[in-house]
Every structure is written in C-alpha cells, then in structure tokens.
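User: Look at the shape:
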Amino acid sequence: MNSNLNDRLLHFLAQSPTAFHAAANLRAELDHAGFTELHEDDAWALQPGGRYYVGRNGSALISFILPDSRPGSFHIIAAHSDSPSYKIKPGPALVTEGFVRLNVERYGGPVDSSWFDRPLSFAGRVLLDEGDHLRAQLVWPEEDLLIIPSLAPHLTRHEGAAKPLNVQTDLLPVLCGGGDADAFWKQLAARLGTAPEQILGADLYLCVRESPRIWGPEKEFLSAARLDDLECVYCTFLGFLDADPGNCIAVHCVFDNEEVGSRSRQGADSGFLRDVLQRLCASLRLPEEDYHRLISRSFLVSADNAHAVHPNFSQNSDPINRPKLNQGIVLKHQGSLRYATDALSAAILRKICRDHQIPCQDYTNRSDIPGGSTLGSLSESQIPLLTADIGLGQLAMHSCFETAGARDPEYLVRFSEYYYSEPLPRMEADL
C-alpha cells in the first residue's frame, strides 16, 4: 500500500466538499505542474508538446497533453465531480417552534438516513454583485453549523411500520434558535465580508464534517465523504500527471452533474468534450477528416466507483460477478448498456491490466436489479468512442460517508499512467 499516495488522496477528499472545490483544487495542481489555462471565449493557439486545461461552470475541467509529433489517437479518462447531497433553496430559512431550519431539496439520490445526527456544514459558490461585473466566490465554513435531528422511537410507536422519509418535512437541518428568518443570509454575508444584498445567487450544498481516514487492523480500509466519485477523479488525475503520452493526446475529463443525469452544459451529456477535441484539432491545423480518423482510433475510460459485495447484504450482489475491496480495478458490464463496456473494450482493459500485473475484477448487477448508470454511455452518445466503464469497489455508495479499500487507489493510479503512456493493443480492422 502506497501511504504517500493515500495521504494525497485523503487531503484532496478533505479539501473538496463540493464539485466547485474539487475543480479548484485540480486547477491548483495543474498550475503547479506547468499547465496553461485556456478559456472557451478566447482563440486557442496550441503548440505541440503543450499541456493545457479548460474549465466550464467552475465545476467541470478538461485537461490534455499534446504529443510533440502528429497525434495518432485520443486516450481519454472521464470521471465526475459531484456527489449526492442536499441543495439549499433560494429561500433558505424556515422558522418553526423557535428553530431556524434550512429549506433544502435532494441533489441526486443520497442515503437519507446516513445524514441524521451528525455535525454538518455547507459549501459551494456564491455570485456577488461587484457593480460592473459578477464575481464568483467559493464558500466553506469549516465549522459545525447544522444538524438534522432524528425522531426518537418513543414518538413513532403508534405509527407502525416506518414511513419513507419526506425531504420537505423530515430532513431539514437546524441552523440556530432565535427565530430570525434572515439568519442564514446574515451569517453567509458576514463570512464573505460583504452585505446580504450583494449576494445575487448561490449553489450551496450540505456537507459532512467527518475527516477522511484510513482504518482497520491492517489499515486496509478508506472511509470518506464523496468517495463516489472523487476517488476516481483524483487517482486517474495522478496517473495523468505522471504519464508520458508518446504520440497520443492524453485527455483527463472531470464532468459535473452525473448524479442528476449529466444533462447540464458541464455534464457528460453536453458538448463539452466534443467542443474541446474539435477546437484542439482546429488549433493544430488538422483537417476535419483527421479529427474523425483520430476518433475512430481512440478510447474512453469512464471511471466511476462500483458496488463491492456487502458483508451484511451479499444476497444483493450477482452470484458470480461480485467485486471485493482491495482486489483491484472493477470492469463494469450491463446487458442493457447502462454501462458502455462491450467485449472489445473489456478485452483492451484486461490486456492493459494483465501486461502490468494490475488486478482486475468484473461487476454485473443481479439480473433482477436494474442498478445505476454512469457517464460512459452518455459521453459515447456525444462522440462515437470505444468505451469501457471501470471503477474501484466501495461500500455504502451514496451515503454521506462511504468506505473503500485502501490498497485499490494505487492500482487505479498505475493503470491510468500506463493507459495514457502506451499504445492501445492492436486490433483487427473490422473490429
């Protein structure tokens, strides 16, 4: 187990309570590594051998490394920066029985019960009126500011079977007492050093206060908030930074809004990746015909964590294809193409793993459980790339505090570096 790698991963997880913070932290590392930032509203003048990145919405990021010679293909890995949570509504405060509660709604599909009775804060971005322009500012009070109190069983015995939780009535976090309906905006403005009337918009989410940690008798487990999907984001990013791409164009994508369908302008179902690849080729003065030829020789790895077999609920896993923690990369399959992996893309991924002694497992859902989906098929619908869905095994997916294997991150970093650095296995022309 690589303790230095895990220390870096834990630090990234601890400093990334929202997609906006995760993207900002990646930008800082790219700047430190000598990458040049591009802007979508500028003309691009790319140079062979250059290292660049471009963001969208402050929460999505595409980075790429150009070869010194004429490129032969794109090697792409995509992951997502968002995780299930609760978003604070524009009218945030409800005054009830002397308490001020925040008015929130679900973002994605969080495990509601995991959020009860633990210290919470909030984080995200705020848009401020600066007179002649708007300014975005990240906010994240690193304090215990909120709690969602559960209801004692003594008060529910007459109700019989447990009822589904109602987010509008059962899951609103307590902010303070005193009954001041403007308390939230006043507190937020004070933390930003501004006046409440300067706040024109906000994307703010609840976040947990527990620190990421390595645990277990042999330190074999990793637990943190937002492992799905920041573990894949950061491990593939480290492999990307260490890569020596040869004649391929190495591309690392971090999309937002996967948990709610990826259909935003910064999601995998947008034209963000297609726009970047087309502009990249145009800046290198490659004709459109060459762009399509590059795409036909290229590969996309969709990296999003996978369900490991659960020790208490093993019956919920497929009887055969049931990944385990600390036993390597998980290759995900689904007959109805919720995952994009097919026999060809699986064979390519397995060969990379086999050639470099990286353990690889297979995941399928139980045939009577539809399961989730990832960004692989959505990206593939925008650009016709050969695609495989992978991840690292984890427990308690969509909980506010998830668990994975502490040995698996090293496997994904190594895989990513080899994937970006070496030619793909040669294929017959008719495949």
User: Anything to note?
Assistant: Residues 3-83+225-421 form a domain with the Aminopeptidase fold (CATH 3.40.630.10).
